[in-house]
Design a protein that fits this description.
It is a single chain. This protein is α/β, with parallel strands linked by helices. It folds into 3 domains: 99 residues, Alpha-Beta Plaits (2-Layer Sandwich), CATH 3.30.70; 305 residues, Rossmann fold, CATH 3.40.50; 75 residues, Immunoglobulin-like. Helices cover 25% and strands 22% of the residues. It has 13 helices and 22 strands. The strands form 6 sheets. A 7-stranded parallel β-sheet has the order 6-9-5-10-11-12-13, sandwiched between helices. Helix 8 runs parallel beside helix 11, helix 9 packs parallel to helix 10 and helix 12 packs across helix 13. The chain is elongated. 46% of the residues are buried. The N terminus is likely disordered.
Length: 538
Amino acid sequence: MRYLIVLLFLFLSILVSGQTNLSNYWVELQDKHETTYSIFYPQAYLSPRALARRHRHHIPIDSMDLPVNEQYLAVIAAMDVRIRHTSKWLNSVTVVTTDSLAQQLKELTFVKKVERVGRYHEPTEKKENVRNVPIESYERTPGYYGYGSLQISMVNGHALHRLGYQGTDVYVGVQDGGFNKADVMPFFDSLRVHDQLLPGKDFVDGDDYIYESAAHGSSVLSIMASNLPYLYVGTAPKATYLCMKTEDVRSESITEECNWVAAIEYADSMGVDVINSSLGYTEFSEDTMNYEYDDLNGQISRASRAAEVAFSKGVFVVNSAGNSGAGSWKFVGTPADSRGVFAIGAVTPSRSRARFSSFGPTSDGRIKPNISAMGQQVAVASLKGYDISVSNGTSLSSPLIAGLVANLKQAFPHKSNEAIQLAIEQSASQANDPDNVLGYGIPDFYKAYSLLKGNNNKQLQAVEIFASRDQLEIIYLAPINDRAILSIYDWSGKVHLKRKIPAKKQFESTLLEYKLPKGVYYLSLEMEEEVRQVYFVR
């Protein structure tokens, strides 16, 4: 009996040893010859929504869109090698295998290169979340955006919402390390009720359950998607979200980049319009994998290369610049270095650079970050009921911008990525003198909207009016630099209200009490250079 126990112990030891020797490998293929797919029948590998986006932007289907050759995959699988992901854009496969089998893969005629990208980890145990807070009213703040007011007003994002753009019918992909409890958090109730939360995908464990592992993704999602008026409203509460888990929180390795590439290709095939990736890759658990500054040219990192392809396919990729500004590295990470990435730095509530925000330029001399937004003392949804937390990081400035990009995508569905990026950069505080600290500066999304609309007036004076039972709220979407005269007339021309309004900064508001009978009125705002009239019904 003792002999059998010893044999069993030895068997288990060998088995465990064999498992620990498993690694992830990136297998780059030579070509896509003799593929069964065709560029003339893209319906086989792209969704109707993805095809519609390409058609809308006049983007042709090409060989990059063709999936990896199935015959090659069959040969690899027959070698007792497990396939994790494929990348059609980079014509590669991520596999799990041993060192000895990896050497055999190198001998295949259709294999160009085999590279170890990290240690293999068994899938994490799945634990379903339970909502532990009843649906009840919450304590309200004075402002509609609640604790999110400052971060959205700093970039004049309120203006897009006031104009009716909150991301409706726009798909936003979110790549992160886990979305713990996002399926039960009250901040996302409206997403679930209105089917704005698509089934997620886990590229780490290879399943469809993403509400685990880490809360970082939940925080990121809340900045865009929260919809609890007077507590916390995000930058794109009406967008539809595809959450994808790509980060393995147990270690840092290039495998996570492979996951990132597979995820962005999946998002493209699903018809996603905007990607938020609050992630970056510079240093790994194994030092031999680390990037050097010279690698920051957008062409070395797998994620950076894939991001450039995604941008060319019509996907607007927003990525955090990185949090290394105060450390020894200092520079942006990858894929923020990509030409196809809109990299976002971080500023404080007082609009100065956050100490941790990473610098540019890229190693080939391009300006990074592209722009900056509030990334210090940012409000995020807590995992505890209706609580709000405050966090720091470019991970948070990125979704602020991604949500507002989704609003511009709603407003201008036929505008190219290049046009939208240019408008945002031209709207920013350092548009005439960009640097590698804040990029083009802090953007003004109403100004970006106006530029896309074709209004090149640099003053961009505008107002919105909202009438309630006995109050009139005038929202200044852009600065008024001189004293203006505000008047309210009825249809007969009778003046019901007339007063002087002092100079106003953008997104300040004036609240007037009035007593008007029911009827149709118009408000006239007479400024030095123009007159604006707005009609409303009492």
